[in-house]
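Sequence in, structure out. Go.
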Amino acid sequence: MRLKIDGTFTTLGDVYRDNGLEFFLDKLTGLTGFEIEKYFVIDVADFAPLVNILGGVDFYVPEDMEYSDPSQSLEIDLKKGKQYINGERAQQLLRYNNYSDSSNSREKTTCDFIFALADKISDASYIKKASSLFTAFEDYITTNYTLDDLADNLDMMSHYKVFEKITYSYPGKNVTVGKTKYFDPDIKEAIGEYAKYR
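Output:
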């Protein structure tokens, strides 16, 4: 997502890296109209151990994913279809961004994968060990969520599977500047659309 900060174009990811968490959260509020009360920040590089702690997850990969970039030590080789995704494969899945089918996208795949993980940890066997899992996760996440918050929300977590889940694509358009592709957000439309959920 391309944004203008103090008259200079930057990306949402760079806002977090360059300006810190509090500024980033304020920018998210400005982009959505939602006050961010609780947050989990997870680096893609730290996602593998988190997925492995959960024992992986069965997931439908939406299309064949092949990509190689030796400069990043990045090799992606996943086949379309339902399969077991461990931590290493989850990193490949979440870093892939060369979709051939326009109905798929990195954002959609990421949301679907997060929903699959949430569905797994809402199982009774995981609810029983939620505290120990949370403690194991702490080395890999930045959060203001506490063990007390977790205890207060265990009942809600156990009912997760019956909740209606909504994904909403942020309005805007894809643009290319030079050789770089960006998403140009329509912030005014987003604020209006998100108002019904506040």
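Check: The longest helix spans residues 106-121. The chain has a mean pLDDT of 91.
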